[in-house]
Design goal:
- The chain has about 280 residues and is an alpha/beta fold.
- It has two domains: about 1-95 and about 165-280, TIM Barrel; about 95-155, DNA polymerase, domain 1.
- Helices cover about 35% and strands about 15% of the residues.
- It is built from eleven helices and eight strands.
- The chain has helices at about 15-25, 45-50, 85-95, 95-110, 115-125, 130-140, 150-155, 170-180, 205-210, 225-235, 265-270, and strands spanning about 1-5, 30-35, 55-65, 70-75, 185-190, 215-220, 240-245, 280.
- Strands 1, 2, 3, 4, 5, 6, 7 and 8 form an eight-stranded mixed sheet that branches.
- The longest helix is centred in the middle third of the chain and has 14 residues, at about 95-110.
- It is globular.
């Protein structure tokens, strides 16, 4: 089984990189993609834990915004972690998360919701990239909501009154940087309509021109009709079709490897990187 999209506690997952690798080994995965939000800080620990038949496709999920303000997530895999340009992009995106969080908290406080930055920091693991899931956890801890899932369907949805966008590269800029760093770019859950406003089919040609390699088609936040539409777009544009869990540990309902990528599609995707960067024991 090949799962190319997971998260650890270096961003908004609940498992350490070591714990995630151990779970992947126990479940018999052959390739695990670790793609924490806007960081590569979990790569070393994951690689040190690696053993047996599991291989790692290390990467990052880059937060992007279109010119129209639509939130898009771009999976960068197999890029050179020492590439200065991509590390600068990741750092700038991380830096934009703190003022964004403060604005969201201020909106909630104005609406009479008892939440503070201290509450969010208490819910965030040390060293983790700050994100909305940590705000969700803080709201759960205070009994304001029941779960992260409830938060993202309501208070933290992209169309919520409390939502605040943040400084981020455009999807095309992120793709171009991933490719310059030698990696491959896969757009994550682009038709996940329950998260808020989504891309249109007509948007993909620009991304292909920028260097897009694949589309995450099989994902729990995309219904069967949305998946079939994406599958057709991928075929028409000769893009790799992936399936992934978007696993976050106990933070979300997603189960490790609940969706996975066909080995032939993975082989095609890997061949598009400028070097063989899959990590093996």
């Amino acid at each position: 089984m090949i799962d190319l999209h997971t998260h650890t506690n270096k961003s908004d997952g609940t498992d350490s990189p070591r714990e995630l690798v151990n779970k992947a080994i126990a479940q018999g995965l052959t390739v695990l993609g670790i793609t924490d939000h806007d960081t590569t800080s979990g790569w070393e620990e994951a690689a040190q834990t690696l053993r047996g038949n599991l291989a790692l496709a290390l990467g990052s999920e880059i937060s992007c915004l279109t010119e129209d303000g639509i939130s898009v997530h771009m999976l960068g895999l197999l890029f050179d972690a020492k590439h200065a340009g991509i590390q600068e992009m990741l750092e700038e995106t991380r830096d934009g998360r703190l003022p964004r969080m403060r604005k969201m908290i201020a909106k909630m406080q104005s609406a009479g919701i008892d939440i503070s930055m201290d509450d969010v920091e208490a819910a965030r693991p040390e060293g983790a990239t700050l994100g909305r899931p940590h705000l969700a956890d803080a709201l759960v801890n205070k009994g304001i909501i029941n779960s992260r899932d409830e938060a993202f369907q309501g208070m933290l949805n992209n169309e919520s009154e409390f939502y605040v966008s943040h400084a981020a590269p455009t999807p095309a800029e992120a793709i171009a940087m991933i490719r310059r760093a030698g990696g491959v770019a896969v757009i994550a859950h682009p038709f996940a309509s329950r998260r808020g406003v989504i891309l249109q089919a007509s948007d993909f040609q620009e991304l292909v021109t920028a260097g897009l390699n694949g589309i995450e088609v099989d994902h729990r936040d995309q219904n069967p009709d949305e998946r079939e539409m994406l599958r057709q777009i991928a075929r028409e544009l000769d893009l790799v079709i992936t399936g992934s869990s978007d696993y976050h540990g106990s933070g979300k309902l997603n189960s490790l490897a609940e969706f996975h990528t066909d080995p032939s599609q993975w082989e095609k995707l890997e061949s598009h990187a400028d070097k063989r960067r899959v990590v093996r024991a």
